């Protein structure tokens, strides 16, 4: 082990022991000077070497530490700080990506629909047979529908609508793929898109995990309220989770109970995801059972024919 | 050690039942008795291997070094750090690693690392050579490969204590076939000393004790 190349491969090779003074109060978040421990964190996180060595002995030889016990104390400080930094960074990065993706998806969908409305109105002025919606834009763009009087700008607009709708679909796929890796239990219980929207509205997974379930139940209601005030939407009574199958599939009289049950389980799922990351399939079974009980209440005294799942769009 | 348990692992009585235990801060809500905390074999493959009296070849004590692959939130590695010396815990998922940090906070010789066990070069500048044991519980595809890649850390007379999860390799195949393949692959670098199904505690898992092939 006299090989000096091997020696310098240790994580501590370029570290001034003074760095460790800064490591302890890193969490205090005060002004950081040269001794803020960041070299230590970088050394642990970014160092690489093919072959391990007897690092404790080398560190003592190199006078990085007085003895092996002191070396291990430093190693503990260093790995704790480095892992804490790495974890925080990774979690934040994952959450942020998802939040942006789901917002972009909603923006693309909404914009595509708005433009499709504009397109239908415009196309209607040159062709009485013009259709509506994104599907009509697709027909126009593909040439499946020929306008009675050909219009270059209308076709071009149709192409933009299609592009936006395709972009929204791709973002949706991304969200469906990503959410289960970031919040496996929440995604399983709520479906990946609804889970991502809850995370987005709350501000992050940690924020969902820290909210009481009553707040989760009405998350999104404020947004709907503003949309309503702007004249875009019907008056909201309920949060986002009212699109959950377990709520929609429940008789209106019992939807409040169903929403409470769903919000309760989602809140547990978010906590498990945030604090342990472990998958707990039993949460789904528990929710299904609870919803069944709730739905059975209306199934019994409901012979009017509009029971449960059929009442909604 | 007449009972085959490493020093620092003892049988203690919790609520009238005799259970394995180590001394340390509780981590996962396990019952305690003074300083001792129960080691739940249904939540820990290494715990199950000990309950099944597999000979893991560890003595325990401050001198013993361990590399733990797939530490998750620290359930098992906390017990290892309680009875062994310097213990390196590798985990690649951020969320469980956050809990691992908490577990490590009260254990000065437990070193958490957020890293991928398939890429030992990303932690070989931190983890020392010649560790006495590699404990591996990664439950992902390519479990034998991970054991082979990490051979470089293990002392020639050290032990690989491996839990193989059949379903992680291939859910559709018969676990026995999966285990046979894993064994064959391991034999490129390891001599297998003992294997046992952990069925009683963990479905479709094989416990393996091996040591490096002498060369
Ligand atoms: C079954 S759990 C381990 C439980 C843990 N050993 C215990 O008993 O407390 C498997 C863990 O291995 C981790 N893992 C899977 N592949 C990995 C890899 N290539 N590198 C590091 N960790 C990995 C997973 O993230 C998961 O946390």
TrEMBL record, chain A:
Record keyword Ribonucleoprotein present: yes
Lineage: superkingdom: Archaea
Positions in coiled-coil regions: none
Protein name: Pre-mRNA processing ribonucleoprotein, binding domain-containing protein
Region (Disordered): 17-38, 293-313
Domain (Nop): residue spans on this chain: 182-296
GO molecular function, one term: snoRNA binding
